[in-house]
Amino acid sequence: MAQRLALQRLLCCFRRGPLAFHGRAFGTSAGHRSTFNVQDGSDFQARVVNSPKPIVVDFHAQWCGPCKILGPRLEKLVAKQEGKVLMAKVDIDDHTDLAIEYEVSAVPTVLGMKNGDVVDKFVGVKDEDQLEAFLKKLIGA
């Protein structure tokens, strides 16, 4: 048990980056994570469809070049919203059923969801101004 706990602490530090020590990360970001990876259909239902907050859903793939450009941009802008909106990342290769259900025919596809309903959508890479406008519209600011 003690070995597993020590391993978890060690892995925690590697996940957070080189400035993390003893389970604490140094930085100015809030203590909560605004971005998460969807694990399965029930996780999507619980954390996205049933979310009381607006959700940005990023359908992406590991092999997708444009996804690697859009993802970090979107994550940064969502984090700047300080919890007003959350971001769910859905890998279409791992969750084909969700991609089919939400009619994702190309990646990256980004959905804006409120109260379980898709209220906005775009496909492809957008610049920061367009992404900020998308988030403001979703949040209602």
UniProtKB/TrEMBL annotation:
UniProt cross-references to PROSITE patterns, sorted A to Z: THIOREDOXIN_1 (PS00194), THIOREDOXIN_2 (PS51352)
Residues of the Thioredoxin domain: 24-140
Keyword set includes NAD: no
Example GO molecular function: protein-disulfide reductase activity
GO-annotated cellular components: mitochondrion
Any single biological process term in GO: cell redox homeostasis
InterPro entries with a match to the protein in the record: Thioredoxin, Thioredoxin-like_sf, Thioredoxin_CS, Thioredoxin_domain
Alphabetically ordered keywords of this record: Disulfide bond, Electron transport, Redox-active center, Transport
Family: Belongs to the thioredoxin family.
Protein name, UniProt field: Thioredoxin, mitochondrial
Encoding gene per record: Txn2
